[in-house]
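Let's practice the habit of predicting before peeking. Look at the sequence and jot down your guess about where helices and strands might fall. Then scroll down.
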Amino acid sequence: MIKVIAHNFLKKENLAAALPLYEEMVAETRKEDGCIQYELYRDSADETHFVFDESWESQAHLDAHMKTAHFTTLIPQISALADASRAKDVQIFTPVY
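Done guessing? Here is the structure:
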């Protein structure tokens, strides 16, 4: 199993434009082969901070996800709405036990 935690920060004025993109990303990704869990959270203390919490059956499934039409279309659109002054962070984990 592969666990991905990805932080993304939006510009406040772009929140309304980003939410439908996020909604589509979550809906389409949950249909993918190998997707165990795919959640999007918003920081309760910072409405511009979003966190993807993902679990994939394997690295191959994650790699395939990053080549899908919805990923290659939506992520650039979301990134264009991001706050470039705040670092985007993606962490990939594998289980220890």
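How did you do? The two ends are 11 Å apart (CA to CA).
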